[in-house]
Amino acid sequence: NAGVTQTPKFRILKIGQSMTLQCTQDMNHNYMYWYRQDPGMGLKLIYYSVGAGITDKGEVPNGYNVSRSTTEDFPLRLELAAPSQTSVYFCASSYLRGWTGHAYEQYFGPGTRLTVT
Amino acid sequence: GESVGLHLPTLSVQEGDNSIINCAYSNSASDYFIWYKQESGKGPQFIIDIRSNMDKRQGQRVTVLLNKTVKHLSLQIAATQPGDSAVYFCAELYNFNKFYFGSGTKLNVKP
User: Fold this and answer.
1) B chain contacts of residue A108, beta-carbon cutoff 8 Å
2) d(CA B23, CA B34)
């Protein structure tokens, strides 16, 4: 299993440009997440999905959009890039375990380092 | 203004000593917690978890303690090794599906 893969690894965008960050997992996990991590900070949840066709906002959704057409893929779209979106973006996935019904032990991808200038 | 957070709290320990990393969580309704380790240039990696109906959980060389009264978690690493050098985050599960992460502590192990 490759686990969680993210592309690209690095990207430089000009202000106002758009791009899609790709995320794929091959573990058949229902839950997928997008986080951003600013320098020296913890991760902040942008969007998450509990299954194909279902997405919801996290802490910092403004300026981003997501879709989940398949179990495997969870792309993150930036429509009008701004310098405030310069960050490292992590995708994660997880599965349900029976004893709590909660999703946990998230598996993280290697991250995409995005710079907007 | 708010600090940009470029300087993480840092804990420096000697190789072989025990390390204790602390975390304050924000929501008294959070019922599940995870400690993650993040090495430079990589995504976070699961270390150990604990449910809110427990006070303590032990893994291999790691122990997590939960004090719900003061909303505090700690991660204890026994016999710290150079490979333990990383940034450590606690995360709380809130509102069923969402995890909220702390800002992290950098552990520096001196040989």
Assistant:
1) 43-45
2) 11
Of A4, A31, A100, the CB nearest to B32: A100
Residue with tokens 């598996």: A107
Beta bridge partners of B67: B72
Query: Which residue bears the tokens 């398949």?
Result: A70
How close does chain A come to B4, measured CA to CA in Å?
8
**Beta bridge mates, B110:** B14
The whole-angstrom separation of Cα A61 and Cα A65 is 8
pLDDT tens, position by position, B46-78: 999 998 899 999 999 999 999 999 999 999 999
For residue B94, give the chain A residue with the closest CA. Answer: A102
> Are the C-beta atoms of residues A65 and A19 closer than 8 Å to each other?
no
